[in-house]
Amino acid sequence: MTELGALLELRDLRTYFYTGDAVAKAVDGVNLTIHPGRIMGVVGESGSGKSVTGASIMGLIQRPGRIEPGSRILFKGRDLVREDERTLRGLRGNEIAMIFQEPMTSLNPVFTVGEQIIENLQLHRRISRRAARERAVELMRLVGIPAPEKRVDSYPHELSGGMRQRVVIAMALTCDPSLLIADEPTTALDVTIQAQILELIVKLRQELGMAVMFVTHDLGVVAEICDEVAVMYGGQVVETGPVKQVLSAPRHPYTRGLMACIPRLGMDRNMRLSSIPGIVPSSKLWPAGCRFANRCPQAMARCRDAAPPQVRSGENEASCWLLVSDAAPVETSDG
């Protein structure tokens, strides 16, 4: 059953990589819902499955990886897992667009930035080259690139990192997508440019009405721009809910651990920052129980024996045995 009003629903999404000696279960049962016009932050440590989740939605998983049978990616009610490559090509860059981490590797160095925007426009829209060029200039102006009539003929190496990232965003917006997946789009940028890019994404969401899946490791960014947040660990979503609720009253020990690691204004300069001990288990050897148990200060015997159910606690949903006695199970449907 599709949730009423949902733009995107992930149901038991599992993306595995078959490496010969073992199976890496990079994404292993992700459930997530994004509504139109909302920004969903997806946060977690490296190796938690954030980027692979985004690539799975885009249909960009290649061998030795595959999306496992039973996984569902419902976009506007259509299950993308069941669609063929031709259909997915029609969706990519059109209804669903993606901004990748490093703008320099996202752009082809031998073509001008304008050529690359024009190519995407002509691929999805029946317009002349002249009209496509005019639209490219308009998009570059929309994302704040100065003198777009001149910059449209620039090569990527002639632009700064911030300008290249704006070009990548312009490319993603060519066809007015309903969903924009931003995979750590500010990682390679300095702090000032990061703030500008974040402000731009929020502004474009408001002006265009698109939903955004914002993948990051920075809870500060999540607090600043997101409406909801999904915390990932070990290839699964361990907690989700409204940003204010999750960050002010986190229910999962992992979320609390992440929050404790954030420096705070007014801290004693001699005070050591908190850290989460240990490392994320290998995706080839997920433990039978809770995947955070080996790092959790509140772990019990049953945490290591069985995976915890997802339960609702206030406005949050979290998977933790500590919540089972005082929270209601989350109802799910595979219909």
Description:
The protein is α/β, with parallel strands linked by helices and 335 residues long. The chain is built from twelve helices and 14 strands. The chain has helices spanning 50-58, 85-91, 103-106, 113-124, 129-142, 148-151, 161-172, 191-208, 219-225, 243-248, 253-260, 301-305, and strands at 8-18, 23-34, 39-43, 65-67, 72-75, 78-79, 96-99, 179-183, 211-216, 228-233, 236-242, 310-313, 316-319, 328-329. The strands form two sheets. It has a nine-stranded mixed β-sheet with strand order 7-8-9-3-10-11-13-12-14, with helices on both faces. Strands 1, 2, 4, 5 and 6 form a five-stranded antiparallel β-sheet that branches. Helix 8 (191-208) links the parallel strand 8 (179-183) and strand 9 (211-216). Helix 5 crosses helix 7. The termini are close together. The model is unreliable at 327-335 (pLDDT under 50).
Task: Record the SSE blueprint.
Elements: E1 8-18, E2 23-34, E3 39-43, H1 50-58, E4 65-67, E5 72-75, E6 78-79, H2 85-91, E7 96-99, H3 103-106, H4 113-124, H5 129-142, H6 148-151, H7 161-172, E8 179-183, H8 191-208, E9 211-216, H9 219-225, E10 228-233, E11 236-242, H10 243-248, H11 253-260, H12 301-305, E12 310-313, E13 316-319, E14 328-329
Helix pairs in contact: 4-5, 5-7
